[in-house]
Amino acid sequence: MRQMMSLGGFVWSLSEGTPYEGLSRTSDGGWVTVPRYSQKPISQNTGQQLENINITGTWFRGEGMANISKLRALQAKRKPLVLTDGYGNNLGLWVIKKLEEKQERIIDDGTAFVLGFTIDLEEYAGENSS
User: Fold this and answer.
1) Which domains, ranges and CATH numbers included, belong to the chain?
2) Sign of CA dihedral 7, 9, 15, 17
3) Where are the extended beta strands (E) located within the chain?
4) Is the per-residue pLDDT at 128 higher than 70?
5) Which of 45, 49, 79, 129 could form a disulfide with 28 if both were Cys (CB 3.0 to 4.6 A apart)?
């Protein structure tokens, strides 16, 4: 099975019916601008901020709702999770900061035919992080 990414045992994969459509990753260089009296501001590096990843996608029918339930169960653990990319590279520990779903085309039993999702991850920094 080919995977796009995995988080704490949850696998995003086309063959598993759990693909994502978009991913954006934000990293900060640690630079801030400090104002100074009567002269130009000075740039200082105060240390890199935590990285963030935003994943978006669309799933369908009951399978999509089950996938969201699995992600919510991971989020409910309130623990850092290992994130691995599709090449098997360990990206370290990450936390689920936010999980958003948008259900559309609901049928009579409450199942959404279309389920859009967004998950925001933040790099986990423990006491030994540098």
Assistant:
1) 5-30+42-123 (2.40.30)
2) negative
3) 5-7, 10-12, 22-26, 31-36, 39-45, 52-60, 81-85, 90-106, 112-123
4) no
5) 49
